[in-house]
Design brief:
Blueprint (H helix, E strand, L loop, with lengths): L1 H6 L9 H29 L2 H26 L8 H28 L1
Length: 110
């Protein structure tokens, strides 16, 4: 995880830890916006029963993502790099979920 955070090309432009933290947070916000967009697309193609199941699955996934990333950052507790690691974790997990949801869209398009 730390390796990814340090190699993130956006973070290479940053000069301070605070700048890297801000860039990583903005990357997460972009990924989260994309997640919401793809989630809405998925919801449009589902029937009522599937929508209820997807809502539950998404809520469960959000709880997993957040608790997983809390676990990931624990070893950096109190360190200035902790926000960077946290944002990068959230971004990675969110991008994974986007791919999962896009797969649903592809399956429905067949």
């Amino acid at each position: 995880m730390l390796f990814f955070a340090l190699l993130n090309t956006s973070n290479l432009k940053a000069q301070t830890q605070m700048e890297m933290n801000k860039i990583a947070h903005n990357d997460f916000k972009k990924a989260d916006a994309e997640l919401n967009k793809v989630y809405k697309q998925v919801m449009k193609i589902l029937n009522e029963k599937e929508k209820k199941l997807m809502i539950k699955a998404q809520k469960d996934w959000l709880m997993f993502r957040d608790s997983h990333c809390e676990f990931e950052i624990e070893q950096y507790d109190g360190g200035s790099i902790q926000p960077l690691i946290h944002s990068n974790c959230l971004t990675e997990r969110t991008r994974d979920r986007i791919e999962d949801l896009k797969a649903i869209l592809k399956d429905e398009a067949r």
